[in-house]
Fold:
Amino acid sequence: MINRSGNILITVDQNYLPHVRIMLSSLFINNPGNSYDFYLLHADIPNPALQPLQRYCERQGSRLFPTKVQDHVFAEAPVGSYYSKAMYYRLLAYELLPEHLDRILYLDPDILVINPISELFNLDLGDKLFAAAEHTWVPSLSKYLNMLRLGNYESEGYFNSGVMLLNLARQREEMDKAEIFNYVQQHCKELILPDQDVLNALYGHRIMPFDDSLYNYDARLYKIYYLTSRGEKDLSWVMENTAIIHFCGKTKPWLKNTKGEFVALYKHYMQLSKQIFE
Amino acid sequence: MINRSGNILITVDQNYLPHVRIMLSSLFINNPGNSYDFYLLHADIPNPALQPLQRYCERQGSRLFPTKVQDHVFAEAPVGSYYSKAMYYRLLAYELLPEHLDRILYLDPDILVINPISELFNLDLGDKLFAAAEHTWVPSLSKYLNMLRLGNYESEGYFNSGVMLLNLARQREEMDKAEIFNYVQQHCKELILPDQDVLNALYGHRIMPFDDSLYNYDARLYKIYYLTSRGEKDLSWVMENTAIIHFCGKTKPWLKNTKGEFVALYKHYMQLSKQIFE
Structure:
């Protein structure tokens, strides 16, 4: 049985397409019987490069809608040497996506989906603009980080922008791209993770938190999750309960000598996705 | 496209049925478009316990033929306190399986199949009785083990009996169960791994070797494979090339606190197989 199960937003450049394939393979294998509408926002991926992905989605009963964001869109957006206009896609998706979409799940391409994600789609957002997760091992510290560095004294925490549910309907009413561009202009020297810093500085208090150990598990922090849960969140727990593993940071699991509890699992999905695309 | 791709032999008791499900899930996911005939030899599994497995195989275009080995079969077989008659099933499968089968792949239930195995089915066996793998990290030592402990001076090595291709046609002509029973009777005090010791003592010189790093990768020995291959067989290599990972020994990956490179992968397949059987 095929249900139309949810909308998913992806924003990548061509280098990252192989990782999108891996992510989608893991999503489909672990959410059998579900189908999705994928919206892929990009600046310059040639059409032929997208076609294998599009065909794969269709074979799974899903649909892929690629949108090339034209150069003149966000012409007024400030850009820097290490962040391009693409950093705004996930924050300003409500301007780029079709009007009929009410909500969409944004996913970074450096993740694996290893369990069903249907509950995440159906989260009650109330009047919040986003839902997202903190990487909670030092929650009080991350709250102070926001207060001090980013100047948002009402924020609940420092949220990771890699997995976010976007309340598009509400965002269209309330958000203002000029505010975002102004903020970046004024703070360009302080931004470390540009889009994530903007998210937290401007909207930290308008984000509904969800449990990172379920939907945005930081693959580097196995021992932290294990210890802070007093041993409850061991490997069995993670494999049974965590739906989204996020390979944050620089030591990506597709690189040759990366170590970690979940590296073999990622590399196995690399191999599975090759089979699927051959 | 469905091909009838090969025969697979499994011998288990009821406790191990969940692990058979996990093995089959991994086999099907990583060998799409293939279908198998499974022969399951057991002593006492009630029929209702086998039905979910049977239905699952059928949904995959495969077939499961369970055979209860009656008490009077091998009535003359010596048994000990830590080995039952079931230890003979894989050595004497040629007596228990239908006459029309020429060859069959025996698989222990504590394995994952993570890549295609079609080449293993088609191995040229010549006049050998079995194909199997050594766990080769100390090949010269294992050869001496056979010579000294098991008294077989012609054997090429000490073969692991967890993954074996059985040349049933040839076995029917040459093998003799009385010889096996006699050997066990005479050496019952020396047998450490009973069926494996018998295999090596009596047939070590009639076994075609295959590469354990491809088809019977010992999950405990990641560092040994890595070092003896001078770094070639790293995690990427294993995920790309190894078809069968064998979780040998006592620290099984389904137990709570087992550690190792492939434990998350195994636990992930535990979860996948739950979804499939729900």
Q: What stands out?
A: Residues 3-277 of chain A form a domain with the Spore Coat Polysaccharide Biosynthesis Protein SpsA; Chain A fold (CATH 3.90.550.10). Residues 263-277 of chain A form the longest helix (15 residues). The mean pLDDT of chain A is 90. Chain A touches chain B at residues 29-30, 32, 114-115, 234-236, 238-240, 256-257, 261-265, 267-268, 270-272, 275 (CB under 8 Å).
